[in-house]
Design goal:
This protein has 4 helices and 12 strands; from the N terminus they run ααααββββββββββββ. It is an alpha+beta fold. Strands 1, 2, 4, 5, 7, 10 and 12 form a 7-stranded antiparallel sheet that branches. The protein has a 5-stranded antiparallel sheet with strand order 3-6-11-8-9, with no helix packed on it.
Length: 351
Amino acid sequence: MAYRSENDKFSLKTNYTDLNLTLYPNAVDTRLNNTNMRGFVNIGDGALPDYVMAEYMNAAIDGVMALERALGATPMVPYGTAPENFNAAVEGGTVASRLSRIENGLFDVRYGGNGWNGNASTRPTLSTHNHDGLNGHPGKISLTTEIEGLLQKANLNLTSETGVTGADVYVSKTNPVLISTALADTLSLTLGGTVSGETTFKKGFSSRTRLDVTADELTVGSGVSLATDTSASVGKALSATSAGTVVTLATLPMAEKSHLLYGRYVLAARIKTTAAAAGSLIRFQVGATVVDVAGTYFTPNQYKQVFFVFEQNSTTKAADLTIQKLATAASATVSFDSLFIEPIHPAVLDR
């Protein structure tokens, strides 16, 4: 069995320990640190060339194989080279050319995209490139196809001045008002607030001493329709047409308004009729209090306020307030669009 000559092998190498006649890659071989590469001159005849020993050849071979392992196979071939171009890449490429591209910022798609040219003064690296899609930089990151998972609340800074707050977020895509601004200009359910500008209530209003109710907030009686009426204050009105029958236009459950302080109130309802019918036309009733309004009070096809005074007490607050169109000799259409209730005078309130 043949053995190769390893007279001065290195036994304490860390890498490539089987290539023990070279110090590489842990150190670079020199004629001083590697005995097998020093060479010897023939004794007594300095003019003659060195004689060759087996260790010289083995050391050179070990050094070559160590370099091959460090560089790896086909080190001049760029990643992803198509099979049909492989031979050309092997013949035409060099390790030096690939290092030069990196040194000079001529990166391929793996390192920033074609066309991302280096600048000698800034020497761009992977740590400084931008995904802005401009000037040969990498394309913009798609949040729908290249990102997964949700940004958790724990990853957001919500506690300091630099964190995301209502001062950074708009109310909606179409409302360019910051949430912090919107909240600062909002009435609080518990703390209240001050309204400095003109205020419009498109629906009713309710407090301890006043109610303001539109037709579409009331319970509609049988045979009554809620229809568009351009002359109504809210654009809609409850209407009923009849002659010899009584029709309940609307019902206001006073039990739902039991927060009204006890005392005397006036109800003002906005009503119109198509004909000034003779006799009683409208009836208001809450508890035992009943008031009829004559048809002659109205001007045909014009809204008019009709008033009704009642006492808010333990009896009326449990009853329903009703507005009825009474039976008439001739057919007439009656329309109702809104009402409000307020004290006759605050002095009469006594809860």
